[in-house]
């Protein structure tokens, strides 16, 4: 293949390239029987010779050689690093996602446990408070009932005592009055009896005296 010089007018050269391709195929077949062993070896050789004649610019070829070399090398490493970076990013992302998911799950579980514990504690506290309040209320009610009963009993006792005292006073007064009346009656009766007997005695004495005087006079006169 013949090429023209580049546009700047540099001197061109003629390069001959010879490419020889040799292909060797070896086939070995081994067959073993009881009495006979046969070994067959086949060797096939294919030789291809390609001769390419190229006329090109040496500097242009050198520039393009190094350009493609660096381009290929750069792309190779670029793709390699890109692939590595992508793999690393994917791996990192996967682990990050996994870690985030695990953390989220753990956090959710912890939150749920905390919430459950808080609810349980709140419920227990509420129950305890309710029980305490109920006990306090019961105690207060009992105390109030006791106090009321005591007050009622006291009032009843006081009332009873008052009536008893009043009755006693009345009875005493009545007794005193009766006694006074009785005494008065007795005194009156006694006075009456005394005067009666006194007059009776006086009268009797007077009559007796009169009779006695008479009798005495009669006796004296006759005797």
Mean pLDDT equals 72
Counting DSSP H or I runs of 4 or more residues, the number of helices is 1
Strand content: 15-25%
Unreliable spans are 5-23, 31-37
Number of strands: 2
Structural class, from secondary structure content?
alpha+beta
**Helicity, as a percent range:** over 70%
| Envelope shape | rod-shaped
Order of helices and strands: EEH
* Strands side by side in the biggest sheet: 1-2
Radius of gyration: 79 Å
Largest sheet: 2 strands, antiparallel
Distance between the termini: 237 Å
In short:
This protein is α+β, with helices and mostly antiparallel strands and 223 residues long. It contains one helix and two strands. It has a two-stranded antiparallel sheet with strand order 1-2.
Q: Your description of this structure?
A:
There is one protein chain. By secondary structure, the chain is α+β, with helices and mostly antiparallel strands. Helices cover 74% and strands 18% of the residues. The protein is built from 1 helix and 2 strands, in the order ββα. It has one helix spanning 58-222; strands at 13-32, 37-56. Strands 1-2 form a two-stranded antiparallel sheet. The longest helix has 165 residues, at 58-222. The protein is rod-shaped and about 200 Å long. The relative contact order is 0.04. Residues 5-23 and 31-37 have low confidence and may be disordered. Residues 1-36 are annotated as: Disordered. Keywords: Membrane, Transmembrane, Transmembrane helix. Residues 13-36 have a biased composition (Low complexity). The chain crosses the membrane at residues 58-74, 86-103, 115-132, 144-162, 182-200.
């Amino acid at each position: 293949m013949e090429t023209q010089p580049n546009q700047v007018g540099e001197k061109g050269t003629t390069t001959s390239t010879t490419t020889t391709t040799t292909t060797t195929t070896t086939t070995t077949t081994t067959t073993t029987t009881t009495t006979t062993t046969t070994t067959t070896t086949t060797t096939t050789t294919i030789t291809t010779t390609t001769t390419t004649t190229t006329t090109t610019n040496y500097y242009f070829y050198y520039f393009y050689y190094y350009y493609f070399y660096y381009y290929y090398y750069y792309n190779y490493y670029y793709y390699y690093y890109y692939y590595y970076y992508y793999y690393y990013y994917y791996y990192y992302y996967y682990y990050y996602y996994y870690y985030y998911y695990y953390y989220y799950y753990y956090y959710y579980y912890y939150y749920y446990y905390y919430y459950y514990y808080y609810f349980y504690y709140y419920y227990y506290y509420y129950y305890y408070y309710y029980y305490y309040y109920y006990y306090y209320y019961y105690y207060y009610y009992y105390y109030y009932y006791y106090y009321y009963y005591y007050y009622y009993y006291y009032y009843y006792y006081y009332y009873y005592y008052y009536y008893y005292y009043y009755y006693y006073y009345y009875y005493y007064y009545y007794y005193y009055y009766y006694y006074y009346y009785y005494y008065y009656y007795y005194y009156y009766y006694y006075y009456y009896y005394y005067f009666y007997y006194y007059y009776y005695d006086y009268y009797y004495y007077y009559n007796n005296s009169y009779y006695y005087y008479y009798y005495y006079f009669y006796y004296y006169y006759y005797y």
